[in-house]
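Fold it.
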Amino acid sequence: MHKFFRVFFWGLLVSFLGSLPLGTMNISVTQISVQTGIRDGFAFAWGSMVVEVIIVRVALITMKWITGQHRLFRFFEYITISVILFLSIASFVAAYKMSGFASPLPIRSLDPFWWGAFLSLTNPLHIPFWIGWSTVLMNKNILRHDPVEYNWYVAGIGLGTLLGFAIFIYGGNFLVTMIQQHESPLNCVIGGVLLITAIIQIKKMIAIPSTIRYNK
């Protein structure tokens, strides 16, 4: 049971922290909760979470095969690092331009649950984000190729996503105002963390061949 709880905890932690940086999803849930109420905000969050969990679970099914394909796995590593670097550069550019964020919710007639599901389904970062983090956890022997562990893992991911959204739902206008006032330094911090993460991953890729790291 301890190993299952550990997998659950890491899924929750990564998902929770990954929900905090500003983006379309958390700004949308904030706008909904402010304009139409907390209930609709949580409906949006549930829709987003359900789709994310399904995407992650499907991705995990293919992880064992992918990890056996060393060249393909190496390709995913490059993709993940490229995405991290892109997000880092985008954060620094946003901080330099001091650009604010606009309302990402053009469709107000759609049910909040389905709107959350739609935005989550069209989010291009789900797969590289979770393949990248799942790879890290597998390398640390925290997550293993076990369907039961996968279920605990995605359960933690689902709860972490809801907890992350809850901060934006209950924070409402106050949170948005505070973020807007400190957006530039926040973008710098996010960019710096992402850049450091990318550098560490690049150093690991250079220092340790993938054929060694992914064979037990």
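The chain is about 80% helix and 0% strand.
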